Amino acid sequence: MINFYYNNPTRIVFGSGKLNSLHEQEFPGKKALLLISNGKSAKTNGSFDKVVSELKKAGVDYAVFDKIMENPIREAIMEGAAVARENGCDFILALGGGAVLDSSAGIAAMATNDGDLWDYVSGGTGKALPRKNKGIPIVAIPTTSGTGSEVNCWGVISNLETKEKIGFGAEDLVPVLAIVDPELMKTVPPKYTAYQGFDALFHNTEVMISKGINVLSEAIALSAIENIAAYLPRAVKDGNDLEARERVAYGSTVAGMTMQLSNVTAQHSMEHAMSAYHHDLPHGAGLIMISLEFARFFIEKHACDAQFVKMARVMGIPDAEKAEDFLTALENLQKACGVDGLKMSDYGIAYDEADALAKNARETMGGLFLSNPCEMTHADCKRIFEKAYR
After folding, report:
1. Does the N-terminal or the C-terminal CB of the chain have fewer CB atoms within 10 Å?
2. Residue 237 contacts by C-beta under 8 Å, 6 or more apart in sequence?
3. How many angstroms separate the first and last alpha carbons of the chain?
4. pLDDT tens-place string over residues 140-153
5. Collapsing DSSP states into helix, strand and coil, what is residue 96?
6. Quick one: pLDDT at residue 191?
7. 277-297 pLDDT per residue, tens
8. DSSP conformation class of 73
9. Dihedrals phi, psi of 304, to nearest 5 degrees
10. Is residue 110 within 8 Å of residue 149, measured between CB atoms?
């Protein structure tokens, strides 16, 4: 557990009101591609105007690209890269939730390289070609607490044509600066606060049970799990509870570190398959739907009982002694956040899709199955989908 490799060049500025210090930071270029979603949140909550003001104070020019949707797609990545090149942008400023932050990695890479993003994607139908040039630098300003992408190099992109959703990234795509200001997260609706918070939680719980767990990633992950479990229900109940927003944001950001130190597991591969076929499914919601049965599989195998006990103890059961206590803690948290009633069928997923979803998960992001604490066969994966189905 002592051996690990960690290289993270991100300068993290964390805390309420820290967006006001953006103009004081060292920027990696002179003109930003200001990357936002195709929704209205960044403009209605004031963060867009504030960032523009800060850029003007710093004397940094910008061009706006506002076509990133939930579950970002390959075409948007390519269009964003073209806009960056056409406007002479030498870095990206990603302002938004996980989709925007994820997209920044692909756009940064394709702003300096020829061809199509899928030429460089590994897994599925991706060609896994080496890139000739490093991507342009990224500055990340998250407005949600979920992916942790402000401090790591990975983004997950969908290919609608091939029904694939695959992670893409490399060390040169780690953001050089992250401004994590929990005040920007106060307007996230309760439902999405819950979905995003559970995404952050599962990044940490998956690291805890992965084969790659080490002394540092475990310490960080347990701290994050404890904070998210204690404060996410409060953030869902009252979005203006700034203490709760701060603690959940902390858990989300440091999850980005744990994922640099240790991989997540096939739970993420399985959800990516779900939203590859059902593009309107929020990532966090899909993870919640399969989470109990996914954990139960390893608990029944006694693959890593001690890890589940450690997590249960920081999730509200301090005297936990058995792995099954984790399931109780997780179920209690889902109830406290009002997401225990989520159903796959509500998003158009059919019971008889389990085989196709299991196959897609392994073919597109099969590498994460290697991080599982014990073997999970295709049949096992299919059965988890079936048992989780409602």
Report:
1. N
2. 190
3. 38
4. 999 999 999 999 98
5. strand
6. 97
7. 999 999 999 999 999 999 999
8. B
9. -160, 60
10. no
